[in-house]
């Protein structure tokens, strides 16, 4: 029996662990080494340059611009998405209630439609919105504006607006999932809690803050972590949708785009890996922070 | 029973069985911090794909001066952009086969050269012949630094396709050799001879009685007239690709201050971007940007603006001589493409009216580490024949670097106009090369110029920003430097 | 969902609602309708544009096509190879999701239910992958896959520009999430059934496949849906691993992004809209049909 057990454990673990070591762990490990070389890709003669790439990163204004955009998204993407999603989830689940709790009419339909963007690939959404935002008569928004004689809005060409366009697309896609997620969470909140609040005379808005939000806090936190990691990993929308791939004038660039550009456009693989290492520590740092902040009393029910 | 199921820690979610997200985070943080230390003893980048195969060669003879092996295939990769790829399939490849019927040609066309090919160069399995062009071209500097591009001197010294008594070297423009040389070695063949200028429709101009401006004041006056006429917008450029407009600014700068303005920029000289002529030219175009641009220009790409031009929504746009071919499907038959050189800025311009930005372009090279490099060179020799170049000119409306190849060919209106402008310019042609040498600098100039044109950067700030980037590149010793 | 459990009849609910209809209720409806429009309009607009000619696209965003141009769809399907890309995506995602679930559940099960030395370390190794940004690994990964391609016999099937290579990479990068959630799920399952089976002399392997795996079905379904969506939407990995020379192997996201670039050169926007519609419609249809299962599965996975 013991013999069979060992064989079983090894047999079941060997393949997944092997694949994982080859394709995931070894590239990450190598990346840390590459970050300390001046490797330019094509040929394999990287010279070890120590921390030179990191020193150079310090005065790379474009890179820091990318970092600041990631940080901005790290705050705004979760805040925007969660606020909107909570609002809708509450309307759909509790908003229409009479006595007791009930969803608003058509709540099922809304939940289905809101979720649409979630099943589409980000790259495809990016191409779609590139067309939606077109600044000429063919643009979905600008076309009608120009027909009315209004200046077209430079959704992707005005550097003061472009990042907001990116954020809007990201939120547009994400909301549906969190509506469904929070709905499921709200559905598991015992009705009695609401009824008790109602007896106390609470309206729907106070009820949200007194009952729903505290009981849903755990799920909201999960959402925040997911969205935070998503914000640090933004790539396809920026790379595919924006002008100059992260522009105009670097106004929408993110760390992932700078990594890709430096590696596959400038062939500065060492330098790009150094950026990757920084992103890595950002992600770890964010995870650690989320861990620390979430360490609080939970409400049990 | 030896199997005691492991109970996972479930202290985080009381009341609900299962696990916690916190557990995940804690694990991730722990492992993440440990990883760099593990990496210190990891193997360095393995091999990197240096294992390129040995190249094959054939016997050299009078008929086969480059020694192409007659039974070995090779691959031709064409950038499927403004020129399309029909010229390669229908002109050059059949021509090549007339001398080497048994050599199989694998034809690949792509719009994204770097994405398609970079991995193959990295893996030591590059195609023989590459048309490295377009927005997604590979960085020549990096390729050369890594010895990926073959020395084409044997091609220059080989007898030409048409006449065994004349070397290839003597059948092409000297500027082509200058342009294709890196550190004195000819490695890249720039095939097309591109002429830049400001394009317009002779039909539109004739109908409205507008005249080609010869001075900057006349140009501004024309813009004003067009704007007031309400018929169309005066000026546009490919806003999403500000290269189209920084090209124009730099040409004007060279016209004002002479060719050294651009030479200094290429050589990363201190203060090159802050030179007076550069600032003057930038200021001049910033004014055009503020007053005369077509609505929405900054968000449109080259095809969108060029299509607007074809629809008579805008009167003028700066472009290269590939324009006519690129637009052949949307151009009305009586449009009448024509080009004029940049107007004289003042009487004190260092260079006379008619000065053009003209340079050999559309680069081709043979991959040094490919299997059959000699076939790639032979393919170039075929391209440089009178027939290969002449038919290319006819098909894609673009002049080539082959001397006299366009003679006797039927030229389209735009090409005839470009050809005449080039003839009128004589020796007064200027060019810059940093776009190929330092891709990063190009990106920064493009980004900054987009802002200059939309009024978000002053000419002063524009030049300072670019100068800073140029200095950064100058200091970065991992980037190979070039001089001219 | 909640209303089903309620004892009040529908009519009563409606009655109650009518009584309580305040301005807030109207605002709620308006907000919901606005977001519905925000979601549907870009999709519908794309669909509309896919039937327009080039001229019609340029001249007005909201005009209807004079005649529906079905040739846009034909061009996108054939010349732009959307059909091929679609099939490739289906093949790759089907294989990689199956592989992910098989290997992931095996590993998760062993890690969750067996005590042995190194268990914790292996588990942490897997789970830590959740926090790694994939961009850091891209370059070396490229070379890893390339070197795998040099292996004797199997090399040609798992190197660069092969679906096999991409599938293995997808599996490996999906393991952290899969192992994390499934291990948790296996831990929650009762042990009694398995113990009884062992007493009856069943092997470990049999217990896993015939008892534990069916018991874990809800968890498996959730994670499968996550993986299908995640892998279907991948853009970055195929971009690096399937280069332009293997255009016939490209997946849908890559293909559409490339058509978008190409539209800039060919001025064929109508085909781009048709291609976009082709990529969007099947997903919307499949989702609408299975929406209940998908939503339940996803949220179950995330809430666990």
- How many domains of chain B? The number is 2
Residue share in helix of chain A:
55-70%
* Amino-to-carboxy terminus distance of chain B: 81 Å
- CATH topology annotation of the largest domain in chain B: D-Maltodextrin-Binding Protein, domain 2
Question: Roughly how many Å apart are the termini of chain A?
Answer: 43 Å
Largest sheet of chain A: none
Structural class of chain B: alpha/beta
CATH topology of the largest domain in chain A: MetI-like fold
CATH homologous superfamily identity of the largest domain in chain B: Periplasmic binding protein-like II
Q: Which CATH architecture of the largest domain in chain B would you pick?
A: 3-Layer(aba) Sandwich
By CATH, the architecture of the largest domain in chain A is named Orthogonal Bundle
The fraction of residues in strands of chain B falls at: 5-15%
Total discrete domains of chain A:
2
Overall strand count of chain B: 12
Low-confidence stretches of chain B: 1-52
> What is the helix fraction of residues of chain B, given as a range?
40-55%
How many alpha or pi helices of chain A?
Answer: 12
Q: How many DSSP helices of chain B?
A: 19
| pLDDT averaged residue by residue of chain B | 84
- Sum up the overall morphology of chain A in one term: globular
What is this structure, in a nutshell?
The complex is a heterotrimer of chains A (301), B (484) and C (304). By secondary structure, chain A is mainly alpha-helical.
General description of the model:
The complex is a heterotrimer of chains A (301), B (484) and C (304). Chain A has helices at 2-34, 52-58, 61-95, 107-115, 122-132, 142-147, 162-187, 191-199, 204-232, 236-241, 255-264, 269-293. Chain A has 2 domains: 1-25, no CATH class; 61-293, Orthogonal Bundle (MetI-like fold). Chain A is 68% helix and 0% strand. Chain A is an all-alpha fold and 301 residues long. Chain B folds into 2 domains: 74-193 and 359-410, Periplasmic binding protein-like II (D-Maltodextrin-Binding Protein, domain 2, 3-Layer(aba) Sandwich); 195-358 and 432-475, D-Maltodextrin-Binding Protein, domain 2, CATH 3.40.190.10. Helix content of chain B is 42%, strand content 13%. In chain B, the strands form 2 sheets. In chain B, strands 1, 2, 3, 6, 7, 8, 9, 10, 11 and 12 form a 10-stranded mixed beta sheet that branches. In chain B, helix 2 (86-99) crosses helix 14 (373-383) and helix 18 packs antiparallel against helix 19. In chain B, 56% of the residues are buried. Chain C has 304 residues and is mainly alpha-helical. Chain C has 2 domains: 22-68, no CATH class; 81-303, MetI-like fold (Orthogonal Bundle), CATH 1.10.3720.10. Chain C has 15 helices and no strands. Chain C has helices spanning 10-20, 23-49, 54-59, 70-78, 82-113, 119-128, 134-148, 155-158, 163-188, 192-199, 204-215, 217-232, 236-241, 252-266, 269-303. In chain C, helix 4 (70-78) packs across helix 15 (269-303) and helix 6 crosses helix 9 (163-188).
């Amino acid at each position: 029996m013991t013999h069979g057990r060992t064989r079983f454990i090894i047999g079941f673990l060997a393949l997944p662990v092997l694949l994982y070591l080859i394709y995931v762990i070894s590239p990450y490990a190598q990346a840390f080494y590459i970050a300390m070389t001046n490797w330019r890709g094509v040929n394999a003669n990287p010279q070890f340059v120590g921390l030179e790439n990191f020193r150079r990163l310090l005065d790379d204004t474009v890179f820091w611009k990318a970092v600041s955009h990631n940080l901005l998204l790290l705050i705004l993407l979760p805040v925007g998405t969660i606020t909107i999603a909570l609002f809708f989830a509450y309307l759909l689940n509790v908003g229409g209630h009479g006595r007791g709790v009930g969803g608003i009419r058509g709540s099922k339909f809304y939940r289905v439609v809101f979720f649409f963007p979630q099943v589409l690939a980000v790259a495809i959404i990016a191409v779609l919105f590139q067309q939606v935002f077109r600044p000429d008569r063919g643009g979905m928004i600008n076309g009608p504006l120009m027909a009315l004689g209004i200046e077209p809005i430079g959704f992707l060409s005005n550097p003061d607006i472009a990042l907001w366009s990116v954020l809007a697309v990201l939120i547009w896609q994400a909301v549906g999932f969190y509506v469904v997620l929070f709905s499921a969470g709200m559905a598991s909140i015992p009705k009695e809690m609401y009824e008790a609040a109602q007896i106390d005379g609470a309206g729907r808005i106070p009820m949200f803050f007194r009952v729903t939000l505290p009981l849903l806090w755990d799920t909201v936190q999960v959402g925040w972590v997911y969205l935070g990691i998503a914000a640090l990993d933004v790539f396809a929308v920026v790379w595919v949708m924006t002008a100059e791939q992260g522009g105009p004038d670097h106004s929408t660039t993110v760390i992932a785009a700078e990594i890709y550009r430096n590696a596959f456009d400038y062939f500065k693989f060492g330098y790009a890996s150094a950026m990757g290492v920084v992103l890595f520590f950002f992600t770890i740092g964010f995870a650690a922070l989320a861990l620390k902040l979430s360490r609080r009393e939970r409400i049990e029910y | 029973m030896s199997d005691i199921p492991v109970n996972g820690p479930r202290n985080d979610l009381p009341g609900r069985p299962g696990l916690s997200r916190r557990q995940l985070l804690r694990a991730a943080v722990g492992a993440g911090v440990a990883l760099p230390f593990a990496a210190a003893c990891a193997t360095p980048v393995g091999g990197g794909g240096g294992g390129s195969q040995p190249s094959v060669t054939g016997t050299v003879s009078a008929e086969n001066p480059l020694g192409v092996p007659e039974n070995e295939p090779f691959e031709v990769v064409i950038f499927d952009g403004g020129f399309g790829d029909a010229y390669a399939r229908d002109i050059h490849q059949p021509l090549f086969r007339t001398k080497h019927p048994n050599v199989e040609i694998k034809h690949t066309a792509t719009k994204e050269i770097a994405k398609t090919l970079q991995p193959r160069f990295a893996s030591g399995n590059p195609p023989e012949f590459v048309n490295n062009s377009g927005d997604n071209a590979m960085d020549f500097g990096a390729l050369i630094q890594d010895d990926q591009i073959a020395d084409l001197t044997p091609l220059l010294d080989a007898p030409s396709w048409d006449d065994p008594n004349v070397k290839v070297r003597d059948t092409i423009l000297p500027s082509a050799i200058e342009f294709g040389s890196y550190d004195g070695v000819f490695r890249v063949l720039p095939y097309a001879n591109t002429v830049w200028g400001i394009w317009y429709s002779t039909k539109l101009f004739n109908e409205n009685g507008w005249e080609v401006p010869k001075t900057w004041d006349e140009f501004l006056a024309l813009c004003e007239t067009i704007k007031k006429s309400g018929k169309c917008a005066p000026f546009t450029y490919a806003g999403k690709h500000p290269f189209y407009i920084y090209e124009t600014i730099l040409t004007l700068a060279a016209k004002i201050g002479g060719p050294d303005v651009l030479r200094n920029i290429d050589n990363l000289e201190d203060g090159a971007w802050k030179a007076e002529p550069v600032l003057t030219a930038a200021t001049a175009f910033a004014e055009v940007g503020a007053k005369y641009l077509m609505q929405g220009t900054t968000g449109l790409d080259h095809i969108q603006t060029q299509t607007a031009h074809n629809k008579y929504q805008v009167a003028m746009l700066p472009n290269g001589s590939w324009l006519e071919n690129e637009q052949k499907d949307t151009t009305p038959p009586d449009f009448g493409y024509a080009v004029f050189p940049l107007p004289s800025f003042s009487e004190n311009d260092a260079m006379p009216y008619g000065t053009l930005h003209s340079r050999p372009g559309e680069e081709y090279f043979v991959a040094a580490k490919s299997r059959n490099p000699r076939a790639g060179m032979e393919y170039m020799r075929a391209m440089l024949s009178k027939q290969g170049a002449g038919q290319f000119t006819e098909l894609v409306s673009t002049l080539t670097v082959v001397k006299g190849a366009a003679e006797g060919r039927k030229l389209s209106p735009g090409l005839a106009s470009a050809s005449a402008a080039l003839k009128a310019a004589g020796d007064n042609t200027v060019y810059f090369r940093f776009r190929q040498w330092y891709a990063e600098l190009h990106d920064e100039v493009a980004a900054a110029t987009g802002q200059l044109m939309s009024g978000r950067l002053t000419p002063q700030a524009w030049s300072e920003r670019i100068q800073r980037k140029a200095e950064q590149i100058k200091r970065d010793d991992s980037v190979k430097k070039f001089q001219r | 969902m909640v209303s089903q459990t309620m004892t009040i009849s529908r009519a009563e609910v409606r009655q109650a609602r009518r009584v309580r209809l305040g301005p807030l209720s109207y605002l709620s409806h308006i907000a919901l309708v606005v977001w519905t429009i925000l979601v549907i309009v870009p999709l519908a607009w794309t669909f509309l544009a896919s039937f327009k000619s080039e001229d019609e696209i340029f001249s007005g965003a909201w005009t209807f096509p004079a005649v529906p141009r079905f040739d846009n769809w034909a061009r996108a399907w054939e010349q732009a190879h959307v059909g091929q890309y679609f099939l490739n995506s289906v093949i790759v995602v089907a294989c990689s999701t199956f592989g992910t679930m098989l290997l992931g559940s095996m590993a998760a099960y062993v890690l969750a239910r067996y005590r042995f030395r190194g268990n914790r370390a292996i588990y942490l190794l897997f789970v830590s992958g959740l926090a790694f940004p994939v961009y850091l690994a891209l370059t070396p990964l490229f070379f890893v896959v390339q070197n795998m391609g040099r292996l004797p016999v199997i090399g040609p099937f798992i190197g660069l520009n092969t679906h096999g290579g991409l599938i293995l990479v997808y599996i490996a990068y999906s393991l952290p999430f899969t192992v994390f959630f499934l291990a948790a799920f296996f831990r929650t399952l009762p042990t009694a059934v398995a113990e009884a089976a062992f007493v009856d002399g069943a092997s470990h392997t049999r217990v896993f496949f015939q008892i534990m795996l069916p018991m874990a079905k809800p968890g498996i379904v959730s994670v499968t849906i996550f993986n299908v969506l995640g892998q279907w939407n991948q853009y970055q990995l195929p971009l690096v691993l399937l280069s332009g020379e293997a255009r016939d192997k490209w997946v849908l996201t890559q293909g559409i992004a490339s058509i978008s670039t190409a539209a800039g050169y060919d001025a064929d926007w109508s085909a781009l809209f048709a291609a976009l519609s082709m990529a969007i419609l099947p997903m919307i249809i499949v989702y609408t049909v299975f929406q209940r299962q998908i939503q339940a599965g996803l949220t179950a996975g995330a809430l666990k």
